Amino acid sequence: MLIRSRPDWWLPERAATPESLYLNRRQWLTGSGLLGAGLLGGGLVGALTATPAHAAAPALPALRHTKGLVTTDDALTPYEAVSGYNNFYEFGTDKTDPAANAGTLKPRPWTLAVDGEVSKPTRFDIDALLKAMPLEERVYRLRCVEGWSMVIPWVGFPLASLLKQVEPTSKAKYVAFATLNDRTQMPGLRARVLDWPYVEGLRLDEAMHPLTMLVVGLYGRVLPNQNGAPIRLVVPWKYGFKSIKSIVSLKLVERQPPTSWSRSAPSEYGFYANVNPKVSHPRWSQAKERRIGEFFRRDTLMFNGYAAEVAGLYKGMNLARYY
Predict the structure, then answer these.
(1) Which of 124, 158, 199, 282 is 20 to 30 A distant from 2 in Cα terms?
(2) Gyration radius (Cα) of the chain, Å
(3) CB of 200 closer than 8 Å to CB of 247
């Protein structure tokens, strides 16, 4: 008799957030303590004003949930906050700029190139990819290095599923990611905030971990432009800047690739960027965080609460040195 064991965070599809909750704005706000509470963080009230730029996106066509994965029972952050309060410097440096400016992004047509140390380099059309990949809902915490956090029901598929298709070679040790670099679509590129395009990287074992996800939607709907349409990375145990948006290429490489923030300020932003309350940013503590919609700050969890699943990836490493 075959006995299949499940990890301790596994929940069946019936445990996924119901579609009725997605579509009922009052339920979102009431459930998160925002309705009439006036507890929103600085700048967020304006972000929640209904505008076409961050109105509810259309539902994902033919959405197929293969399972419901819930890794926290924390209250979900409202759709309006998730889509209206972002860091996406390609569209401006204020938190509300992406929602206001990302309408210029054209997520179709779109291709995702995967090459480098692989046996089968492939350029994936985004629509063909969505038809081929069974989509999953995953409720993850998101912790920004700036000290704020959210809880988001993402829709996507494991990055490992894509990487297995291209067959990494024995030389592949890391995955290098790059964002679209188009000034006509991304007005923020005209400001030299970073060395564009935005680039990120993971070790191959991090990329292949079952929690690492390529995301194409949230709250059961198409991923809004300002959240990284049409496809982005989500690595829930790392600070948010690791979850690169609007990805156009993945390259499997032998050496550790450069990353935008560690290249810009290496003493402040390391390659690993694991959420760690014991290691402060040079300019602020990481011990506490402000969950969007809450008045009081809460304790930050080691690896953002995913230590049981990912701590083994870093066994024996000095996490203060490899920050």
Answers:
(1) 158
(2) 19
(3) no
Specify the residue for token string 């960027």: 273
> What is the β-pairing status of strands 288-291 and 111-116?
unpaired
* Residue 144 CB neighbours (<10 A): 18
Structural domain contains residue 216: yes
Residue 4 in domain: no
Beta-bridge mates of residue 139: 70, 153
User: How far is Cα 42 from Cα 28, in angstroms, rounded to an integer?
Assistant: 20
Q: What is the pTM of this model?
A: 0.84
Domain count of the fold of the chain: 1
Contacts of 311 (CB under 8 A, 6+ apart): 302, 303
Q: What range defines the domain where residue 125 resides? A: 10-312
CATH number at residue 132: 3.90.420.10
Residue 3 lies in a domain: no
